[in-house]
Amino acid sequence: MSISRVHTWSNGEVLTHTDLNAEFDNILNNAHSLTFPLTADGTFGGFKATGLGLGLVSSPSVQFTGDTNTGIYSSAADTFDIAAGGIRAASFATVALGVNYLELNPSVATAAVKLDSEGSDTNINIDVRPKGSGVLLVNGETVTGFLASQVYSY
């Protein structure tokens, strides 16, 4: 959508305050139409994009063209969620005064990807908890009696 002219002046016509005010009011009242839909990549010049809606799993705040139920949203305060196909695919939350976190690293050919515990503590556990009677599977095999000092290959 674009803004259309309110008045087209002709040669020799006297500009009135009413016509000028109408033209400026048209621009001010329809500013959204000046920029949206965006027709090119934009830059924020070091500024932040703020004021995004929280979104929903079925309609995330940040969506992709032609896929309105896939993207990112926030299901609660201090929570970052990823939706895929209208389903919560991942959720990242925090704790008050949190200092430790997970880091996921890609790999070069023939090397393993890495999931590391990182943070300011010296020794950081990774606590994996299946829900209900669920079990921990590694490469499709149930892990029982897992000890951190042992190396398992499957």
Describe the structure.
There is one protein chain. The protein has 154 residues and is α+β, with helices and mostly antiparallel strands. It has two domains: 1-42, no CATH class; 62-142, no CATH class. It has two helices and eight strands. The longest helix has 13 residues, at 17-29. It is elongated.
Outline the fold blueprint:
Blueprint: H1 17-29, H2 31-35, E1 62-64, E2 67-73, E3 80-84, E4 87-92, E5 100-105, E6 114-119, E7 137-138, E8 141-142
Antiparallel strand pairs: 1-2, 2-3, 3-4, 5-6, 7-8
Domains counted in the coordinates: how many?
Answer: 2
The gross shape turns out to be: elongated
Low-confidence sequence ranges? none
Average pLDDT, all residues: 88
Helix count, DSSP H or I runs of 4 or more residues: 2
Strand content: 15-25%
The percent of residues in helical segments reads 10-25%
End-to-end distance: 58 Å
**Main sheet characteristics:** 4 strands, antiparallel
**What is the succession of H and E elements?**
HHEEEEEEEE
- Alpha-beta classification: alpha+beta
Strand order in space, largest sheet? 1-2-3-4
Rg, rounded, reads 27 Å
**Strand segment tally:** 8
In short:
The protein is an alpha+beta fold and 154 residues long. Helices cover 12% and strands 24% of the residues. The chain folds into two domains: 1-42, no CATH class; 62-142, no CATH class.
